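help with these tokens:
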Amino acid sequence: MAAEVTTQPSATDARAPAAQSKPVDSENALDESDAQHHLPWAVEGIVADVQGHPLEGVQIRAARGWGTLHSTPPVSTDQLGRYVLRFGPGMVTKNEDTGQWRAGVQAASIFASKPGLAEKNLGRQGDLLMADSLPDKESEWDPKKIILPGKPYRLDFILVPAAAINGRFLDEQGQPLPGQRIDLTGDELPPSSSVAASTETDDKGCFQFPDVTPGFVRWLEFHGERKLALPRTQSLTLAAGEQYELTLQIVSDEATGQMLRIACARDSHGQDVLDKISHDDPRALPFLSGQLAANAREVLSRMAEVNKCWFGGRPSDVKSLEYQFHLADGEPRRITEQDYSDAKSWYREWYAKGISYTGAARVLASLRDRAKFRQVQRDEEQVTIYFVLQDLPSTVAAGNGIAGTWKGFFNAKMLEGVLQVDARRYTPISIEFGDRRELYDDYVEIKPGQFVPRRIQILSPGMDFDFRFRTLQPGLWLFDRSYGRWAPRAQDPVAWLTDVMVNAAPAVVAE
């Protein structure tokens, strides 16, 4: 494969180096015939309202590249809502063997905007790619989302009346806070965006967000020199076409400390609508104190005791452990007692489990005395705890292997999340943190009052694991096999153990 050097000119299309002097800002100043020749990538379509009526004067632009995206000047829709946007790449690569410049595969996010309106779908259909040609079939790229040169890509948009926010930011004494950055954000954002919008307060503490997409969960976040224990507000969902007046204020809470709160929200008729537009979001709740926090720690303490046979290392009466470790498409590896003894402390618990796994429930239980809690709910079936582990050593990990043999592996900090525990046995049901989730199932009683799961599923972006376990005498919880995307066939395991020896004798199944 020829070596390539990546460059990121501020002025670029995909032609030979002699053409690199044309600035990006002049791309759409070319006439139509020149644009088709020099700017061969294109999107075209119609922009309309929810009733299907065409919208004139909507601006369409593209942002291209990787990492830093370079934006084109916009084009506008005509009286029939039609547009054609032609562009070159945001970055190019030079093939050292041929000297040719290529676009490769890169992001091409397309946006539609007009004052007073917002794109109904957050521009998700405009989350596209551009390339010189279709990648191989085995590529990770979706060919249906790739814009190719000389083949205009059909892309329509629907715009709706936007919501608007006029706000004022106050300190604890009710005095305005000028020059402070405020972000409007949420879990669902437009392509290539880290926030929905960002602004700064003026000398009177006032700020505006004029064109907010309605119907999506949003909240405000504070970014400044003052460090708040909770720098975000309650969650809001705004109505289409509505104008809101918000009072944003820093308040203090005994358990949490300083928090950012929406003290008042009024609609265009002057009605107080905070209760109508805000809703429950545990991430925005102040920390629990007193008996409620003690209740959460008691649940975690009982969970730690009931599940210690799989939370901890191997049982004290297991003096030695050996097994043959198999990985799909790989040579078997004999794991011995000496491997366990020689392992670094981080890996040592993995050898005793037969799999690379530091579980989220175990990590939370071990940090229970220093954890904070936003919510504890209990019914006859389960206990739900919203926990926070900010600034605590909370690394979790999972992988189809042992210390370097993985097919798929991740490790990540667990900052906060939601734990669900069986209210009768105190066995964990699930734990969610960030964009990951662990599910625990098929429990057996390995010792009186001690339980272990025989199945653990870990769901994370692009990397799911399905671990199966078995129980061996005397009270040993050990990996059996795993399934997932790294297997040659769907029904095949990815990793598995054979020839297990416990205390220098063939293992005996406990159940």
Summary: The helical segments are 32-38, 274-277, 290-306, 308-311, 337-342, 345-353, 360-366. Residues 1-30 have pLDDT under 50 and may be disordered. The CA atoms of residues 380 and 423 lie 6 Å apart.
